[in-house]
Design goal:
mainly alpha, single chain
Length: 79
């Protein structure tokens, strides 16, 4: 699409579809959600489980962590 081609089908996260729709390359009214991907939290063995029960607690857990690992590769978003 970056080279100017118009796709027949696009499978991507909603934020990516929104950006592509702005270019006029497809009919955004024909868009159908086909799935969802959740996000999980993993904690190393022996470490206490962080409180992620509220947005503020989640922010504190992230800010207080000694280290974090996150994956942007599978989102389709350009970060």
């Amino acid at each position: 699409m970056g080279a100017g081609e118009t796709p027949d089908v696009v499978v991507a996260p909603p934020s990516v579809l929104d950006e592509i729709a702005k270019s006029g390359k497809f009919d955004n009214t024909a868009r159908v959600e086909v799935g969802r991907v959740g996000i999980g939290v993993a904690v190393r063995d022996g470490a206490p489980k962080p409180d992620i029960s509220t947005i503020d607690a989640f922010k504190r857990a992230v800010l207080d962590a000694d280290s974090l690992v996150y994956n942007r590769a599978s989102t389709g978003a350009v970060c």
